[in-house]
Amino acid sequence: MEIILSNSSNKAIYEQIVSQIKAMIMNGTLKPGDSLPSIRGLAKSLHISVITSQHAYEDLVRDGFIETVAGKGTFVSHQNKDFVREEQLRILEAKAEELVEDAKMNGIQLSQLIETITLLYKEDENGHNS
């Protein structure tokens, strides 16, 4: 599991860890049941404080992405597909909000935006690159 931290990011270190582990779970790099490093192991490998890695793991547990089994370790949760889909939709909605804001700021009409998205979606369905 490779996590890359950036000092120049506007995200806190624990948030960078959380988003990268979530992405690895959602894209299948990390599979249900895969073990993760201990909180201390993660802290040592990333040269961060134990408190920072603990904060990241707490967020991931809260969101249902990982689970900790006492005496055994931390593992990727056996979550259902609906949960993963819900997370993917949440990410997509955030991107769509940004797109809509940009369109409004640049005077692009809703009909133009829908037409562009429809065109891009259909091109992708037909195996053409845009």
Q: What does this molecule look like?
A:
The chain has 130 residues and is mainly alpha-helical. The protein has two domains: 64 residues, Arc Repressor Mutant, subunit A (Orthogonal Bundle); 45 residues. It has a three-stranded antiparallel beta sheet with strand order 1-3-2. The longest helix has 25 residues. The mean pLDDT is 89.
Structural class by SSE content: mainly alpha
Net shape? elongated
Number of continuous helical runs: 5
Oligomeric composition of the shown chains:
single chain
CATH uppermost class of the largest domain? Mainly Alpha
Uncertain regions: pLDDT < 50 for 5+ in a row?
A: none
Enumerate the strands of the largest sheet in spatial order, edge to edge or round the barrel. Answer: 1-3-2
How many strands, what sense, and barrel or not for the largest sheet? 3 strands, antiparallel
Mean pLDDT metric = 89
Report the helical percentage. 55-70%
Number of separate domains: 2
Could you say what the CATH architecture of the largest domain is? Orthogonal Bundle
Tally of extended strands? 3
Strand content: 5-15%
Task: Write out key terms for the chains shown.
3-stranded antiparallel beta sheet; 130 residues; 58% helix; elongated
